[in-house]
Automatic annotation (TrEMBL):
Residues 28-139 form the SHSP domain. Keywords: Stress response. Gene3D superfamilies: 2.60.40.790. PROSITE patterns: SHSP. It comes from Sphingobium wenxiniae (strain DSM 21828 / CGMCC 1.7748 / JZ-1). The keyword Endoplasmic reticulum does not apply. Pfam families: HSP20. This is Molecular chaperone IbpA. Belongs to the small heat shock protein (HSP20) family.
Length: 157
């Protein structure tokens, strides 16, 4: 049983969390589960989304990656009118699947084989965001002794 939750009071009392609340609200929306999909972690920073799109051809499907959102849309061409269906079990309805991607995850190649659409994803962290070691420089000998301030009168003597 799924219940709706109102994030309105939290939105009013927080600053900078709009993206988080949008993600939570998007996850709470009902999903019809079509087309079914798998998400597989292939390696340390590589993933693959596979959608079961039986009955669709590659030219019927559009994959769009924009910012942190991957959208897969399918619209099947009209039937040519040959034959009369006694039972139609292969879904032919149009669909749109959206996948919210984490920061620095980029969509790569898409392939279509045996009714499965596979989209490669890779996390690419920019060099500026990666941790780097900072060397500490300084002279150890200069810090070993403490000198008192020199008095000009003493120096004259």
């Amino acid at each position: 049983m799924r219940t709706n939750f109102d994030f309105g009071p939290y939105r009013r009392s927080t600053v900078g969390f709009d993206r988080l609340f949008n993600l939570l609200e998007a996850g709470a929306r009902e999903d019809d589960g079509y087309p079914p999909f798998d998400i597989v972690k292939d390696g340390e920073d590589s993933y693959r989304i596979t959608l079961a799109v039986a009955g669709f051809r590659p030219e019927d499907i559009e994959v769009v990656a924009q910012q942190n959102l991957l959208t897969v849309t399918g619209k099947r061409a009209e039937d040519d009118g040959k034959g009369e269906y006694l039972h139609r079990g292969i879904a032919a309805r149009p669909f749109e699947r959206r996948f919210q991607l984490a920061d620095f995850v980029e969509a790569g190649n898409a392939s279509f084989e045996n009714g499965l659409l596979s989209i490669a994803l890779k996390r690419v962290v920019p060099e500026a965001m990666k941790p780097r070691r900072i060397e500490i420089s300084g002279s150890a000998a200069a810090n070993d002794r403490i000198e008192a301030p020199k008095d000009k009168a003493r120096e004259a003597a």
